[in-house]
Write a structure and sequence with these properties.
- The protein is α/β, with parallel strands linked by helices and 336 residues long.
- The protein has a single domain, classed as Aldolase class I (TIM Barrel), CATH 3.20.20.70.
- It contains 14 helices and twelve strands.
- α2 runs parallel beside α4, α2 packs parallel to α12 and α11 crosses α12.
- The radius of gyration is 19 Å and the shape is globular.
Length: 336
């Protein structure tokens, strides 16, 4: 059933039409006409999870578990390898129950190699032992624990019991020796939730805000009993989620994701305090529609435009980019 569901998720993502708003449009960045820089001085490299990567972009969790999704992961891992950027795999729950599914995840580490960053992924009810197995399966540098409450509630066969997730996350944090990243799946993480996660030891949070892949719509296309169209607009916009968590704690590392499609989205995410910017749905669409060359061209052009915007801001590297002054306007200003 999980294999079929994974395939349906990808097919339904490509059918989705509802577009949310990250509210990044309400962030104004000032032009610098005298940057006193040469373009070849721009340095986009960062340190993430203890390793140096060339660009502040994470290929975020998408899929795995079948021959079809294995080919997708193969291409994504090749991109991560060529560009030296991190990659997170999709939920490995299916591989814990079905050994035949493991190869679709293992191939990521095989391609990226030991020097690159690979991140595991499980749900909030995963046991400590499951977390260890998921990490071992792909020799992961960290593990994502995803929170998908809205998706489960709309999913016809989804979970309905959610008590105990926070204490379970605390157990995993205490028992494993790898960083744990708590990640939403497109509906955002509020400051209150971030504080509760921080209190149990979580130091990496992926806000995965509203504005990108909409799992309510994806599951609604699978649900033939009820219509959940009215919930398509549910969630915390990515821009708002980042602002709420910015400077919350000095040792809290934020991953931005949820509707990041362009170089400007990446830049604004970093200006709003993100350690790195995760891209998933947009990259998947380029890959499915145009194959590996199309996906590679999309990422390379995004990277080139990131450098251009850094030049326009007069910022030589990512640390200085994070100090960029900005103005908040419109709806986002009203919401904060």
């Amino acid at each position: 059933m999980r294999r079929v569901r994974k395939k349906e998720h990808i097919e339904n993502y490509l059918k989705t039409s509802f577009k949310g708003d990250t509210l990044f449009g309400d962030i104004y960045l000032p032009h610098n006409a005298l940057p006193e820089l040469n373009f070849d001085e721009i340095d986009t490299s960062i340190s993430f999870l203890g390793k140096k990567v060339n660009y502040p972009i994470l290929i975020n969790a998408m899929t795995g578990g079948s021959v079809f999704t294995q080919e997708i992961n193969k291409d994504l891992a090749t991109l991560a390898k060529e560009l030296n950027i991190p990659m997170a795999v999709g939920s490995q729950t299916i591989a814990l129950d079905d050994e035949d599914s493991m190869e679709s995840f293992k191939i990521v580490r095989e391609i990226i190699g030991s020097d690159g960053i690979v991140i595991s992924n499980l749900n909030g009810f995963a046991s400590v032992e499951d977390a260890r197995k998921a990490i071992e399966m792909i020799e992961a540098d960290a593990i994502q624990i995803h929170l998908n409450l809205a998706q489960e509630l709309v999913m016809e066969e989804g979970d309905r019991e959610f008590k105990g997730i926070l204490s379970n996350i605390e157990s995993i944090v205490k028992e494993i020796d790898k960083p744990l990243i708590v990640k939403e799946v497109g509906f955002g993480i509020s400051k209150d939730v971030a504080q509760r996660l921080y209190n149990v030891g979580v130091r990496y949070i992926d806000v995965s805000g509203y504005g990108g892949t909409n799992f309510v719509e994806i599951e609604n296309l699978r649900n033939h009993e009820l219509d959940f169209t009215e919930l398509y607009s549910w969630g915390i916009p990515t821009g708002l989620a980042l602002l709420q968590l910015k400077d919350m704690k000095d040792d809290l590392r934020i991953v931005a994701s949820g509707g990041l499609r362009t170089s400007m989205d990446v830049i604004k995410s970093l200006v709003l305090g993100a350690e790195i910017a995760g891209i998933s749905g947009e990259l998947l669409a380029y890959l499915i529609h145009g194959g590996y060359p199309n996906a590679k061209e999309y990422l390379e052009s995004t990277i080139y435009k990131i450098k251009i915007i850094m030049m326009l801001l007069g910022k030589k590297d990512i640390p200085s980019l994070r100090s960029t002054e900005y103005k908040i306007t419109g709806k986002l200003k009203e919401m904060i």
